[in-house]
Amino acid sequence: MSIRTGIVGFGYWGPNLARNFSVAKGGELRYICDRDPARVEEAARLFSGAKATTDFGELLRDDALDLIVVATPVSAHYPLVKLALEAGKDVLVEKPLALTVAEAEELVDLAKACDRLLAVDHTFLYTGAVRKIKELVSDGELGELLYFDSVRVNLGLFQHDINVLWDLAPHDLSILCHLHDEQPQSVIAMGASHTSSGFENQVYMHLEYPSGFVAHFHWNWLAPVKLRLTSICGKRKMVVYDDMERGEKVKVYDKGITENARGVETMKKIFVDYRTGEMRAPKLDHGEALAEEASDILECVKTRRQPTSDGEFGLRIMRLLDGAQKSLEGGGKRVELRGVGPGGGGS
């Protein structure tokens, strides 16, 4: 059975989605929809096998259409996804799932009520690098995780409807939540806007967990260089994930420390033994992440299996973003988090 797909939004990300869904095994790209006639004309030229249209209603009325992929500005996610689910379509939507937690919760509940699949396009989960790191964590090679530290900065791309938190944070938060299931207890976020828009283009975010695990992030649209660097520290080993590296994106370091108390009289002193072993760069799958995601989503639609990044996962990210936004608006105040773990309630 071929899964028939329609894509809504042919701006920045839509052409990439169209390219991958048009060639994915087991799928058929049937529609490309955009409200801009010029973009529709471009879509018709590039993907002649699909019908290009400005009328979203055409997709909703086509009973043979299985999957709608939403790749529009965030402000349009909620109404489009809602209409698609109510029309009986499975949905893949660009991150973040919606503008507000309330909207995201409603969409997740609606998908369940309509017995439809709802997936969120957290593409990084399908990269060879993140899949390898997930394997290392699941196999226990890193040991108990101690911290997650991530930097994602560059010059641009300034958004007109969201700040840098809502634009870039979903990438790193999705990786974190994919690797570490524990529910955080609080978030602190501080940022700054250097344009007249008022939207923060620089944000620092800090998550604290009951176990003592911490996660720290830096996002910035106004940086002189492009960095995509993540460090993950475990009690046994550490990982550095540099997405700007062409070759060895993931490096595993057999390094760490051991604390030793040497005598009752010196118990208040900490003696640290350093362990310095070898570094290895594991072999990665270098296939395109979006191609892997397209194939997985089509398979999920066919078999009714829940995708890796389903609506619940997307809602979990939304709740973290919401808590961080509240902290930003409070000038960096600590915000207590509830229900952001797997299957949790509201914050």
Description:
The chain has 347 residues and is an alpha/beta fold. A nine-stranded mixed beta sheet has the order 14-13-12-11-7-10-9-8-15. It has a six-stranded parallel beta sheet with strand order 3-2-1-4-5-6, sandwiched between helices. Strand 2, helix 2 and strand 3 form a beta-alpha-beta unit. Helix 1 packs across helix 8.
Write the layout of secondary structure elements.
Elements: E1 3-8, H1 14-23, E2 27-33, H2 37-46, E3 51-53, H3 56-61, E4 67-70, H4 77-86, E5 90-94, H5 101-113, E6 118-121, H6 128-138, E7 145-155, H7 164-179, E8 186-192, E9 202-208, E10 214-220, E11 222-234, E12 238-242, E13 250-260, E14 271-280, H8 289-303, H9 311-329, E15 335-336
Parallel strand pairs: 1-2, 1-4, 2-3, 4-5, 5-6, 7-10
Antiparallel strand pairs: 7-11, 8-9, 8-15, 9-10, 11-12, 12-13, 13-14
List key phrases describing it.
single chain, 347 residues, alpha/beta, 9-stranded mixed beta sheet, 6-stranded parallel beta sheet, 32% helix, disordered C terminus
